[in-house]
Amino acid sequence: MIRLHQVSKTFPGSTVPAVDRVSLEVPAGEICVLLGPSGCGKTTTMKMVNRLIEPSSGDILIDGRSTSDCDVTQLRRSIGYVIQQIGLFPNKTVEDNICIVPDILGWDRRKSRERAAELLDMVALEPGAFLHRYPRELSGGQQQRIGVLRAIAADPPVLLMDEPFGAIDPINRVIIQDEFLKMQAQIRKTILFVSHDIDEAVKMADRIAIFRDGRLVQYDTPDNILAHPASSFVSDFVGGDRTLKRLQLLTVRDAMLADPPRVRAADSLKQAVATMEEHGHQTIVLVGPRGRARGYVPLQAARGAAGTVGENHEALPTTIRPNEDLRTAVSTMFRHDVSWLACVDEDGMYLGYVTLRGITRLLSETYRDG
Amino acid sequence: MADGVRPMLMRLRRNGVHVGVFLLGAWAWAGGLLPGLLEQWDDIAFLGWQHVELVALSGGAAILVGVPLGILFTRPRFRRAGDIALQVLNVGATIPTLAVLALSMGLLGIGNGSAIFALFVASLLPIVANTMAGLRAVPPPLLEAARGMGLSTRHTLFQVELPNSLFVIYTGIRTALAINVGTVPLAFLIGGGGLGELIFTGIALNELGIMLAGAIPTALLAVLVDFIMAQLQFWTIPRGVNPLR
């Protein structure tokens, strides 16, 4: 857990504080993204945690212990640090770069080298191929993966990340972000993450802290920041399309109507119409004998027609998995010009459906409550 | 392709050198030069050893003093002193080595000591300058990463700063030794001994044999020292920061 209590920083020769009485608390195992325009104090705030910058006043506690009571090098060794420029040491191999902190902490060499190999495995870099390479022999994305591994090598409980993925091309950035989130699900570090990219913040954060001119203007979950910006500054900063951004915070499962009525191939169209009318549906999904989604029957086509569903159904234009985010769902709907999607699991079993109206209702719920 | 062409060129060049050396040797033997040189062998060996001693003592001392001095001048505490030192060194580097020798003689009198001191001063300049330049060129993100991870200043110096500036430091040492070896023959002029004795005697007596007996070993020594430095540079600098590998 990281706790900042009324922390301020005024640089020598300046009358305006760079960071002004910031208080926030990051619960253990969560990612807090410090977000704001350049010069808003977010990086200064982060660097005060490992005392690269000494606070002018206020107190910073890590797991209940004030950082000002710790020896500064010991403190830094117990906090992982990742910077945008990566800063791998070009004179050291990947292995030695990862093991820097374990080495200065005096870990057993074999243990630390084993750990390096394990860590490489975690980010899908083949240890045999990469351990003995030098940084200049790696791509930017690979270098930053090593940069992150180096920060967590000695298993520090707290991690500081200063725009870690800012210098990586957009395609690789998304991959590395996903990879990092997957890793974080396992290692559960308490992370302060500086960013100026709202999309990155929404994606990575459990909580977002928005800074302006050295002050913390809003500290909340991504969904609340997007749904209820505290000021016009925040709403301008998160952007006019902020509600659309909320789509990626929610999954299909959140908006899905589970276990809806369904029909089988042998059922007559008359039965299908009756079921639809009973539930007020415009369409119904046809499932196979084991429950796989096979097709669908629209109400209009079925009404008054004779025969079985098996002979008169239409193919599903596409399906979606419940763990996809709603942005993907809506995008899929627009692409196929439909207003609903059947949700299936990885075996193709029919789980439920999601509609555009359902998504709209879900997104607007928070506004109605407020 | 470049991989295939380079060794071939190098082999060609080496063969060319072999043939050249052989022809030169044949010509020297036939002209009576080589037998003449061999007559001087005792002198060559004695003065050659003196010569090597001059290089080793003055150059060695310059390295031992110059590198730590360069490190010291780049520490934050001595940053201002470092700026001034660099100015002084740049001015100092413009003084011809012969003048340095003369000044040294004025200071310490005739003899071995003043020769070694002058050579030491002349070699010190490029070593300090390059050590400072190398250390100052270490990319700031490396230093920030090192600091942020809790490396002590000593760790940072030995694990990050020095390895990453080693190539530039070596280049300074190489330049210094080249100047040093090239200046040693002049040390004779202030009573320092060395192969310069043969060269200047040969010139004074107009004896080509004696002169070459001094000149050829001097040249060979210069080539040898540079070769050793190049090998050191190649093998001792980590592969990740070695532009030669």
In short:
The complex is a heterodimer of chains A (370) and B (245). Chain A is of the alpha/beta class.
Written overview of the protein:
The complex is a heterodimer of chains A (370) and B (245). Chain A is α/β, with parallel strands linked by helices. Chain A is built from 18 helices and 17 strands. Chain A has 2 domains: 2-249, Rossmann fold; 252-366, CBS-domain (Roll), CATH 3.10.580.10. Chain B contains 10 helices and no strands. By secondary structure, chain B is mostly helical. The A-B interface holds A 50, 52, 72-79, 81, 83, 85-93, 100-101, 104, 134-136, 150-151, 160 and B 139, 141-142, 144-152, 155, 159-160, 163-164, 166, 238-241.
Can you lay out the helices and strands and say which pair or pack?
The complex is a heterodimer of chains A (370) and B (245).
Chain A (H helix, E strand, L loop, with lengths): L1 E8 L9 E8 L4 E5 L6 H8 L7 E6 L2 E2 L5 H6 L1 E5 L10 H5 L1 H5 L4 H14 L4 H4 L9 H13 L5 E5 L7 H18 L2 E6 L2 H7 L2 E6 L2 E6 L1 H6 L4 H7 L3 H5 L5 H4 L1 E2 L3 E3 L4 H11 L3 E5 L5 E6 H4 L6 H4 L6 E2 L5 H11 L3 E5 L5 E6 H14 L1
Parallel strand pairs in A: 3-8, 3-9, 6-7, 7-8, 12-13, 15-16
Antiparallel strand pairs in A: 1-2, 1-4, 4-5, 9-10, 11-17, 13-14, 16-17
Chain B lengths: L1 H29 L2 H7 L1 H34 L4 H14 L4 H12 L3 H25 L3 H9 L4 H31 L12 H10 L2 H29 L9
Helix pairs in contact in B: 2-10, 3-4, 3-6, 3-8, 3-10, 4-6, 5-6, 6-8, 7-8, 8-10, 9-10
Pfam families (chain B): BPD_transp_1
InterPro entries (chain B): ABC_transp_perm/SBD, MetI-like, MetI-like_sf
Subcellular location (chain B): Cell membrane
The level 1 CATH classification of the largest domain in chain B is Mainly Alpha
Tell me the major beta sheet of chain B: none
Most extensive contact: A-B, 30 and 22 residues
The strand count of chain A comes to 17
Give me the CATH fold name of the largest domain in chain A. Rossmann fold
Principal-axis shape of chain A equals elongated
Which class do the helix and strand fractions of chain B yield? mainly alpha
| Class from secondary-structure proportions of chain A | alpha/beta
* Rg measurement of chain A, Å: 26 Å
> Mind telling me which CATH architecture of the largest domain in chain A this is?
3-Layer(aba) Sandwich
Give a quick account of the main beta sheet of chain A: strands, pairing sense, barrel closure: 6 strands, mixed
Shape of chain B: flat
Total helices of chain A: the number is: 18
Cα end-to-end separation of chain B: 17 Å
Question: Could you tell me how far the N terminus lies from the C terminus of chain A, measured between alpha carbons in angstroms?
Answer: 30 Å
Our Rg estimate of chain B from Cα atoms comes to 22 Å
**Briefly, what CATH class of the largest domain in chain A?**
Alpha Beta
CATH topology title of the largest domain in chain B: MetI-like fold
Annotated CATH homologous superfamily of the largest domain in chain A: P-loop containing nucleotide triphosphate hydrolases
Mean pLDDT of chain A: 92
Question: What proportion of the residues of chain B form beta strands (DSSP E)?
Answer: under 5%
